[in-house]
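Table S5 (text form). Sequence records supplied for joint modeling of the two-component complex.
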Amino acid sequence: MNRFAGLLDRLAYEHGRNAKLRLLTAYFRATPDPERGYALAALTGALSFPHAKPGVIRALISERTDPVLFALSYDYVGDLSETVALMWPDPKRSAAESAESHDRPGTSPSLTEVVTRLATLGKSELPGQLARWLDALDETGRWALLKLVTGALRVGVSARLAKTAVAALGDKDPDEIEILWPSFSPPYADLFAYAEGRIEKPLITDPVPFRPPMLSHAIEDGDFAKLDPADFLAEWKWDGIRVQAVAGQRAGGEHVARLYSRTGEDISPAFPDLVEALGFDGALDGELLIRREQRVQSFAVLQQRLNRKTVSAKLLAEFPAHLRVYDLLVEAGEDLREQPLSVRRGRLEALVARLASPHIDLSPSIGFADWETLAAARANPAAAGAGIDADAVEGVMIKRLNALYLPGRPKGLWWKWKRDPFVVDAVLMYAQRGHGKRSSYYSDYTFGLWTKGEAGDELVPVGKAYFGFTDAELGEIDRFVRRNTTGRFGPVREVVHEDERGLVFEVAFEGLQRSTRHRSGIAMRFPRISRLRFDKPPREADRLELLRRMLDAAEGTPSSGASAGAPAIARTGRRKGA
Amino acid sequence: MRPEELLAPSPVGLYCPAAGFHIDPLSAVDKALITHAHSDHARAGHGHVLATRETLDIMRLRLGDDFAGATQPVAYGETARLGDVTVSFHPAGHVLGSAQILIEGRGQRIVAAGDFKDQADPTCAPFVPVACDVFISEATFALPVFRHGDPAAEIQKLLRSAALFPERAHLVGAYALGKAQRLIALLRAAGYDRPIYLHGALESMTGYYAQRFNLGALRPAREAGKAELAGAIALCPPAALKDLWARRFPDPVTCFASGWMRVRARARQRGVELPLVISDHCDWDGLTRVIPATGAAEIWVTHGAEEALVHWCGTQGLRARPLHLVGYGEEEDGPVPDTGDSVQAKNGSA
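The corresponding structure-token record, covering 928 residues in total, follows.
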């Protein structure tokens, strides 16, 4: 437990992905089975302990500490698990002080002991067992134990990152680990043995396995001259979630279907409505979207169905899931990945027609004879065939017709050509220092837009960005921040933002969604600084109303009516370069 | 008589009317007794200063030769007579030269402990409990969540990180007096024998300590190139962690050695990536161990979480009250003194 606690402790403070990976790999390398396997299970969310509620922990600490001291401490620390971990009385000391106590602290438990014991422990035995473990652990160990049992590790490690660290033990491909993942279960001894090259690759017996997807490159202006339009298929790039829908039969003849994310995570439980519609035998590659009344909704709408713990009937009715497919990897046991796209496309069209499912349709191709025509389609999808679904188009895909389906990101076969991002001119309001290499630079920026306040126009924060600028620009902004600081709040500096004094950023972003976490009620997707506007006074920056109208238009909800007569640009926002 | 007649809080600090002296006064007074040389306790401009030899040396080093009208060194355990009051200095275990001051007079024994810790520290004399009627305790870490643990284990955390990231520099924020030198001594005790790099603001104090303790190879960071600093451990005042100065280091891991690092939110707020819980103050367990050991029936509590410690004393049947002295406990977390270290960074080249 101590080593696992040390790992969690370090991960909680580390920001860099590569540094986290190094910490994880070093831990897996130095820790024996089954201990490291249970750590992997904890990090990938494969463990849950339903009886360990905060109330149990609160009761334990209130039996052991003075209520006034607990209240003062909790108030200072602000986190229950951490407060309890820090102020849990040292049993050696308590025993020395009170003669009647004969309890001796046990040895510190291993993670394996904690996980295996909790799996069989009854609800009534839990508090006593937790207390014995807390007695035997140090501060970091107690913190880790409490985070583990309450299921809130929050150390910034995704399941994918943990699997990537396992792959790094033996220079394996993370995608390969991902594919094999469903064949293993905690504590993953065979997985580690395979990653370390001690055993052969296990046979996949799963009838509906995930297959690593083929990915594209961003196309650049210079690329077009080298490419002959006749060699390519173009289709819309949908602003949804890339998924793989796999269906087939178990040995016993039972039909089984699964929906995977792009990284191979099984997301079937979140989309029962769609999984039910997967009545075929094969593997489809496509986009998960929300479709209401025959119209594909924007990402802002899809967002509202994602990351929900439970899928209610209401959610299913309001946000019906839809699969728009563009590739066929396997059909009836035949691996089509070795066939060119032109062949796969034909088979895909036939399959979709046979299925005739209202939840699954084909992503149409875009007719074009030259790149100019495709450029026009990209600039105005509604007029080029996307029709009422145009709001969910984020660009076009360009795919070589004779390309095989190759996992990873092969060169020269698939390209994405995204629409230009939306842009607004926003005013820098607060700056915070970055981490690692940027720890001495003010590199994280909160920016705002104008809106009507109680005392006239005021700036309201609408987002944060910490990339998009060059190193030289970072230096310029850093100097500006240091010279124009008007207030300090811990690590945050308030930067001058008045009508005539302040720094305007052109902020590029991919879309908008509603947010209760921001005062403006709006959150941007993928915001970044696209240009420094030292030439522009803050009073000429954009207004919050622009974003509100864009969001209303994206959601298809009429706004308060104010925008009905507004020009198109005011309704749909401004794109870079437009 | 009441102990307040022997020693009482005044706007500039604790005052003894019978002998006319202040303890750690905040502004210039005629006669001052100084517990230790941290800047919130030891100020310039007093007429007479009584302190340990080391505290006087360090004050001279930091404040200049003319920091006081006259000075009188008092060794640990030695007594000095001031009017009809006797004072003596006893090790406080906080930093080199730090002392608890015992004031005896009119049948009362009061100990003004200044800042103290009862944890082992290779760079200063160990704390000794002094029997008294009134004990004046600091309360910097007087909440039960502050448990400082074993500093050697924290040093191991730093060394393991340095081994895992050999291409990055580990930049450790540490107070210039006491903490920085204790860290160096702890690193040496752990077997770390590579040169340790110092911010300019730490050089003279560390030089003073190095006359008494073997601190190994020390180098000014400002003279080192980026390549040399890869994999190195460097110490600087906490404020320099976010200063332009930090830019000379290759992808630095930001570390901070302080009792505050026990609380995650405090570490995150400062952008610390590797918190090291090493403190020169008593933790909660230390405070609640030391107070009964003095045998005092009355406890006066100053700077920090006074409320919690006063409450605890109440539960132990001790009379306790907060002193509400202001101006202490800021430690030395102010702006970094200009030592010329930042010149290179200011020009944007580092």
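Note: The two ends of chain A are 57 Å apart (CA to CA).
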